[in-house]
């Protein structure tokens, strides 16, 4: 620190580029994992509640899920400040949408809006990794998965965040999605009964919590069905 | 028109310099520089110009890249009927103890205090924003005051906006308050990272004091217990944090309002053997 | 039918300063807005509350401008500016013409003549703020029509209010109101 202050007689020659500081970064990774599984008539969304920076835990209880209405929500991992801002933007867009359309936004509309919102910051992206999940027009589960700059795709299940390398293979193995290359297109929704899907998600989080230091503390689980949203909580190790 | 406080531009957002759209004077009274309509944004903001600094040395304009005068950790805990915030009173210039009586805990209104670590000039700027807001509240004369959660949210937006401009306010701020019978404790980092919790600490405090808090804190602590815990945390921070001094302040927010204590010192013990002869096990040092 | 407190005539413009306006209500609010901005601006430049004479001068030059151009009409309000700063308590009268004077006691509006007469009878140097409240209430009752009701609005900046602009506590205001009425009735009886 002392060396950084302008107290020294010798000044490094211009262009020598002596770096005295780790340069400031507008980005940070606060970790966390989000998972969503779509079924024939349900959707399970889960997110860990730990928020970290580097090797420190900032808080053990920070929700990563924003529920717009009983049929549509988003879950985001990545940088918390960007996540909060993105959620604020989407929330206000949802409110104005309701004023204009006199009905809540559907999952498909929100999916496109989220993509646009992310892409609008293409050259200074929101450092967030999102899932948009809910129930579609036919009442089937819907999950959309994104990258930080807005590319998205509808899938049968998805996982984002620090634990995705650990959880995604498990979901791939257990839910056995048909390849999108197979013609005619196959049903890619999970045919698992709801309770088994919840157990699968819980199991996946327990495993991720074992190996990923950014996944831990609690998992908040939202279960969307035609009857509304049910919440569940899973306690992970707090180490 | 007399410019309204620049730091609360309605056009550009809180914490940004720029025009306000509120209540302009009749145009004719204001001598304005002639400007082509195509250059003038509809919102009334200044049109973009080439920054002279950028032309001068062929480098992009540089903003704050490191802090100069800094404050170290701020600690905060909630208890049964309020919130406690604590910090020392040092403003350090690098490792020089430059300002020894800098009050880093400040009252915002009767329900809210803030404490800041990091660049102290940036903190003074932030305090000015908050004072302007509460002066405006006073002049509105409707009895409403900023709630702690609103102050917290506001500061989050200010710090986040500034990081978006690549011109950060180099602070971690703790907001403590008491509203509607509930204590509030939240923090904001310099890139806008924000959260609330039952106990908080910035900087070194997150490593040194928070483990203690996690072990001993209960939401239903009495004021005495909470104060004792706070003293213990401060002491641990003081022992281990080189950039701190033994001169602390404690701020309390309860239903009765805000009080910021006079500076006080804590009793410390340096009489351990290894302290007395630190070179005993390291030959050749002094 | 007017809701109580919905037609205010006294306004805070900073912690230590308040404005009472008589005339066109909308012009009054506009001038209050200007005063707030001036106070705010001064504080952000110099870091201390704006002194009374500076605020009064700035307001006066502002309203004066509106006398100078054919496109604008002059302000339709006379305002009393009360400030309690480093220099102690001060009272200024700012008129639409752009004049500004400092007074020990002043009155504006329809009944100003009668009110001024009454103020002259007071011994201002010996008065406490609480006594002042009673005197002001009495004068206001005197200059208003008895049949036509009016809303008594009292605000003060004094030691008791911590040198801050404050509405006079309701109980005190009610007492002053009652005392004023009683005193006037007693005087009527004497006549």
Task: Briefly say what this structure is.
Chain B is an alpha+beta fold and 286 residues long. Chain B has helices at residues 52-57, 120-140, 148-164, 204-208, 210-216, 223-240, 273-276, and strands at 69-71, 74-79, 82-88, 91-93, 96-99, 105-109, 112-119, 171-179, 182-188, 194-196, 199-201, 248-254, 257-260. Chain C has two domains: 1-109, Glutamine Phosphoribosylpyrophosphate, subunit 1, domain 1, CATH 3.60.20.10; 110-191, no CATH class.
Describe this structure in words.
Chain C: This is Proteasome subunit alpha type-3. Chain C: One of its GO terms (cellular component) is proteasome core complex, alpha-subunit complex. The complex is a heterotrimer of chains A (239), B (286) and C (191). Chain A has 239 residues and is α+β, with helices and mostly antiparallel strands. Chain A has a single domain, classed as Glutamine Phosphoribosylpyrophosphate, subunit 1, domain 1 (4-Layer Sandwich). Chain A contains 4 helices and 12 strands; from the N terminus they run ββββββααββββααββ. Chain A has helices at 80-101, 107-120, 164-175, 194-211, and strands spanning 33-38, 42-48, 51-53, 56-59, 65-69, 72-78, 128-135, 141-146, 152-155, 157-161, 218-225, 228-235. In chain A, strands 10-1-2-11-12 form a 5-stranded antiparallel sheet, covered by helices on one side. In chain A, strands 5-6-7-8-9 form a 5-stranded antiparallel sheet, with helices on one face. In chain A, β8 and β9 (152-155) form a beta hairpin. In chain A, α1 (80-101) packs across α2 and α3 packs antiparallel against α4. The radius of gyration of chain A is 21 Å and the shape is globular. Chain A starts with 32 loop residues before the first strand and ends with a strand. Chain B has 286 residues and is α+β, with helices and mostly antiparallel strands. Chain B has 2 domains: 1-62, no CATH class; 69-260, Glutamine Phosphoribosylpyrophosphate, subunit 1, domain 1 (4-Layer Sandwich). Chain B is built from 7 helices and 13 strands. In chain B, the strands form 2 sheets. In chain B, strands 1, 4, 5, 6, 7, 8, 9 and 10 form an 8-stranded antiparallel sheet that branches. In chain B, a hairpin with a 2-residue loop joins β12 (248-254) and β13. The longest helix of chain B has 21 residues, at 120-140. Chain B is globular and about 70 Å long. Residues 21-25 of chain B have low confidence and may be disordered. Chain C has 191 residues and is α+β, with helices and mostly antiparallel strands. Chain C has 2 domains: 1-109, Glutamine Phosphoribosylpyrophosphate, subunit 1, domain 1; 110-191, no CATH class. Chain C is built from 5 helices and 7 strands. In chain C, the strands form 2 sheets. A 5-stranded antiparallel sheet of chain C has the order 1-2-3-4-5. A two-stranded antiparallel ribbon of chain C has the order 6-7. The mean pLDDT of chain C is 92. Chains in contact: A-B, B-C.
């Amino acid at each position: 620190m002392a060396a950084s202050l302008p107290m020294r007689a010798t000044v490094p020659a211009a262009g020598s580029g002596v770096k005295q500081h780790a340069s400031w970064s507008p980005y940070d990774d606060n970790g966390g994992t989000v998972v969503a599984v779509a079924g024939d008539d349900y959707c399970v969304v889960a997110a860990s509640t730990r928020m970290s920076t580097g090797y420190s835990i900032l808080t053990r209880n920070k929700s990563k899920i924003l529920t717009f209405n009983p049929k549509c929500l988003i879950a985001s991992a990545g940088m918390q400040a960007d996540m909060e801002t993105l959620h604020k933007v989407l929330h206000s867009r949802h409110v104005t949408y309701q004023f204009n359309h006199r009905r809540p936004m559907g999952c498909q509309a929100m999916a496109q809006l989220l993509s646009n919102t992310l892409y609008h910051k293409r050259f200074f992206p929101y450092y967030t990794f999102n899932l948009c999940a809910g129930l579609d027009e036919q009442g089937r589960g819907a999950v959309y998965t994104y990258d930080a700059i807005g590319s998205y795709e509808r899938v049968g299940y998805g996982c984002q965040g620090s634990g995705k390398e650990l959880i995604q293979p498990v979901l791939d193995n257990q839910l056995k999605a048909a390849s999108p290359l197979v013609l005619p297109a196959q049903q890619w929704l999970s045919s698992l009964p709801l309770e088994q899907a919840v157990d699968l998600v819980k199991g996946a989080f327990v495993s991720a919590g074992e190996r990923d230091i950014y996944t831990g503390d609690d998992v908040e689980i939202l279960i969307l069905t035609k009857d509304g949203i049910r919440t569940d909580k899973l306690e992970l190790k707090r180490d | 028109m007399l410019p309204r406080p620049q730091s609360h531009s309605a056009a550009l957002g809180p914490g940004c310099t720029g025009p306000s759209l509120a209540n302009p004077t009749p145009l004719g009274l204001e001598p304005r520089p002639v400007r082509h309509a195509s250059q003038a944004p509809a919102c009334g903001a200044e049109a973009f110009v080439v920054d002279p600094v950028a032309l001068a040395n062929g480098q992009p304009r540089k903003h704050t890249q490191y802090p100069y005068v800094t404050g170290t950790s701020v600690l905060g805990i909630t208890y049964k009927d309020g919130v406690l915030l604590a910090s020392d009173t040092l403003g350090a210039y690098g490792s020089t103890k430059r300002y020894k009586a800098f009050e880093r805990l400040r009252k915002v209104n009767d329900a809210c205090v803030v404490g800041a670590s990091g660049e102290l000039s940036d903190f003074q700027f932030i305090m000015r924003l908050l004072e302007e807001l509460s002066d405006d509240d006073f002049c509105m004369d409707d009895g409403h005051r900023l709630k702690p959660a609103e102050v917290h949210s506001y500061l989050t937006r200010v710090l986040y906006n500034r990081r978006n401009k690549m011109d950060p306010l180099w602070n971690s701020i703790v907001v403590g308050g008491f509203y509607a019978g509930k204590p509030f404790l939240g923090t904001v980092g310099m890139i806008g990272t924000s959260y609330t919790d039952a106990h908080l600490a910035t900087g070194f405090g997150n490593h040194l004091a928070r483990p203690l808090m996690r072990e001993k804190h209960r939401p239903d602590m009495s004021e005495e217990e909470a104060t004792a815990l706070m003293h213990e945390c401060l002491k641990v921070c003081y022992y281990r944090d080189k950039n701190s001094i033994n001169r602390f302040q404690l701020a309390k927010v309860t239903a009765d309002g805000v009080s910021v204590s006079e500076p006080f010192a804590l009793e410390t013990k340096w009489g351990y053997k290894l302290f007395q002869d630190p070179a005993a096990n390291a030959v050749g040092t002094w | 039918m007017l809701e109580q407190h919905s037609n205010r005539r006294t306004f805070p413009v900073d912690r230590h300063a308040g404005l009472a306006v008589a005339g066109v209500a909308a012009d009054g609010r506009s001038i209050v807005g200007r005063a707030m901005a001036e106070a705010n601006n001064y504080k952000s430049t110099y870091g201390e509350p704006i002194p009374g004479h500076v605020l009064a001068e700035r307001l006066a030059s502002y309203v004066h401008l509106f006398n100078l151009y054919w496109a604008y009409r002059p302000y339709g309000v006379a305002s009393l500016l009360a400030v309690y700063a480093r220099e102690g308590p001060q009272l200024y009268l700012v008129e639409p013409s752009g004049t500004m004077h400092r007074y020990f006691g002043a009155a504006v509006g329809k009944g100003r003549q009668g009110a001024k007469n009454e103020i002259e009878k007071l011994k201002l140097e010996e008065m406490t703020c609480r006594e002042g409240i009673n005197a002001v209430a009495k004068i206001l009752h005197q200059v208003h029509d008895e049949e036509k009701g009016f809303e008594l609005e009292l605000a003060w900046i004094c030691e008791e209010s911590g040198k801050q602009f404050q509405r006079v506590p309701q109980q005190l205001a009610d007492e002053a109101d009652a005392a004023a009425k009683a005193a006037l009735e007693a005087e009527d009886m004497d006549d």
